Amino acid sequence: MSQPIRITLDGDEIEVAPDLPLTSILMERAPGWRESPRLQARRGMFCGMGLCFECVVEVDGQWTRACMERSRSGMEIRTADQRRSAGGGHV
Ligand code: FES
Question: In the predicted model, what is the mean pLDDT of the chain?
């Protein structure tokens, strides 16, 4: 098994396996990552192949689709949940 790497998720430094799909990290570590604005219920990933843009997050200051990214050392991820709690409004 490969050595864990450190990434930052919504301001918290965490250890994860390298080259892991971001969607699996977010579903486990950022439960408010995707939420239905109407039902206020958690949602999972939608297409999982880069087509719907439902999984957009900020990685190293750039918007990207989480389902198309994999974990790499030092990356900084910000979710819409974190932006909402910081007063950034709905995304
Ligand atoms: S889940 Fe559809 S683009 Fe990522």
Answer: 88
Ligand 1 near 47 CB (within 6 A)? yes
**Domain at 5-85, CATH class:** alpha beta
Q: Does ligand 1 come within 6 angstroms of the Cβ of 21?
A: no
Please choose from 53, 57, 59 the residue to mutate so as to test ligand 1's pocket, defined by most ligand atoms within 8 A of CB: 53
CA distance 73 to 91: 26
pTM: 0.82
- Domains of the chain, by residue range, sit at 5-85
Report the candidate in 10, 6, 13, 39 with the shortest Cα–Cα distance to residue 26: 10
Which pLDDT does position 43 carry in this prediction? Answer: 84
